[in-house]
Design a protein that fits this description.
mainly beta; elongated; 2 domains; 19 strands; eight-stranded antiparallel barrel
């Protein structure tokens, strides 16, 4: 049985945040202000229940179908850095709420944790928060899959743009902050007008690498430019294949396929720069393989079958 604790957010969360899907949020010890959903618009949510890394947040009362209601979310929270937090949704999708992972109850209802936290959570249902004014503290090294200097083409619902010979994406000079040469091609990688990006979260799931990148433009309109983008990538042969979708990852997104509204990139590296840790691991594996091979040869020479 999970222990239900007094519900307060950690004091380190206090501040104003960019969020990947909910707009700009203000968080204090008990309230998330201006949390946006398609069904309700902007509402304030209070910390309602907490058990370990699970937080149930409850909205202020609102009118729905001429009756008073509250909305609830169950969030599994992980602090990424001193300036960033990630959460996964642990509430099942609600078809009556535009498939948001939220519950709706009459305002007078009594609920318990497992009424709201009724889903194991889609692996890629991440949303990310980055504290405003501390963006650089939220930077993490980008996934090895996309660490390189690339030429690329972009394919979206309007067709193919940018030629493989007149483009440049640099994820080597600063492996946490990709830069796009916008003078060569103006099509937007990660929906950035300025071409300056920052990786804030990575996860390998199966054979795919997921990266959440933050757009460092001064402002975004969340229609043509977006603060956050989900990249799904994979290296096949000499190419790196990447799909991008604004704000959050999509369950059907793969490196070569993405729902309408996203785009795919075929990227050809002129240079790659995987992490030192990755190279060390590769060297250890190679040395171990050589040692085993050498031992087998010696055994064969002196003790033939």
């Amino acid at each position: 049985m999970l222990g239900i604790e007094a519900c307060d957010f950690p004091t380190t969360w206090n501040g104003t945040y960019y969020s990947s899907q909910r707009g700009d949020l203000i968080i204090n010890s008990t309230v998330i202000q201006n949390f946006n959903t398609t069904l309700t618009g902007l509402l304030d949510y209070t910390c309602f229940m907490n058990s370990g890394s699970l937080y149930v947040i409850r909205s202020e009362i609102f009118l729905l179908h001429n009756a008073l209601h509250r909305a609830y979310f169950c969030l599994e929270v992980t602090e990424l850095t001193s300036a960033s937090t990630m959460y996964r949704h642990r509430t099942s999708q609600n078809v009556q709420a535009y498939n948001e992972r939220m519950k709706l109850y009459p305002a007078i209802s009594s609920v318990v944790l497992f009424d709201i936290c009724d889903d194991t959570g889609v692996t890629t249902s991440w949303e990310v928060l980055v504290k405003q004014g501390s963006e650089s503290d939220a930077a993490v090294d980008c996934s090895n899959t996309i660490r390189g200097i690339y030429n690329y083409t972009i394919i979206d619902n309007t067709g193919t743009s940018c030629g493989i010979t007149n483009t440049s994406l640099d994820v080597c000079t600063d492996t946490s902050k990709p830069t796009v040469n916008m003078t060569l091609c103006t099509s937007k990688i990660a929906y950035s007008a300025g071409g300056l990006l920052q990786c804030v979260y990575n996860s390998d799931v199966g054979s795919y690498s997921y990266t959440i990148v933050m757009n460092l433009d001064n402002s975004t309109d969340e229609m043509t430019t977006y603060r956050f983008t989900c990249l799904v990538s994979q290296v096949v042969g000499e190419y790196t294949y990447v799909s991008q979708y604004p704000q959050i990852c999509q369950s059907s997104q793969t490196p070569t396929s993405v729902p309408v509204g996203g785009a795919t990139l075929d990227m050809l590296p002129s240079e790659i720069c995987p992490s030192t840790a990755s190279l060390m691991t590769s060297s250890v594996v190679t040395m171990a393989t050589l040692a085993v091979t050498s031992a087998f040869i010696v055994q064969y020479l002196f003790c033939p079958f």
